[in-house]
Amino acid sequence: MKIAAIIVAAGRGLRAGGDTPKQWRPLAGHSSTYFAVQAFVRHPRVSRVVLVMNGADIAAGLWPGGFDADVVAGGETRSLSVRAGLEQVAPDYDQVLIHDAARACIMRDVIDGVIAALQSHKAAAPAVAVVDALWRGTSGHVEQTVDRTGLFRAQTPQGFDLKAILAAHRQFPEGGADDVELARLAGMDVAITPGHEDNIKITLPEDFERAERILRARDGH
Prior knowledge:
221 residues; eight-stranded mixed beta sheet; EC 2.7.7.60; Spore Coat Polysaccharide Biosynthesis Protein SpsA, Chain A
């Protein structure tokens, strides 16, 4: 099976603060996108990597290159950006891994788990079980406790049969919360694979410090 990876880096990341989109802000000497692309370019099972960027970021030269990854322009929504990547790799590949550039700390074990599950499923995605108590609140007050049984925190990369997920994007152009939601709308069964607590998505300003600690600990610094 030939596997392609799509790294989605077209968002604006406003909640992370700063004047530069979060995926391009300095992180451990590089950027979140750098580490995300690196993980897939260096994976022995991934044959091609496509980086989907905002057109303005392409024009500004925010991607310094240095890796064997193709760059394509994304759309106005995450779903449209993913579809741009999918159209770029179809029909030459059998499976695709879709990953958020804001998850700089992705590790090979998580990628391996998704690829292994794709041998027997058309869709697979990593997740971490919810272990904390969950509340539903209104106006700063707890209204009720929510049963956490069977709840997971979704991560990426989310892996798919390429033809099947491209068909789902074409069928549901309005998009969804993520590619797993579109897959399920299209009737695909999605296997849950092991995620990791370190596979964080940089969302808020304090996430940069945590991601930097994780990355530097791996390098022994």
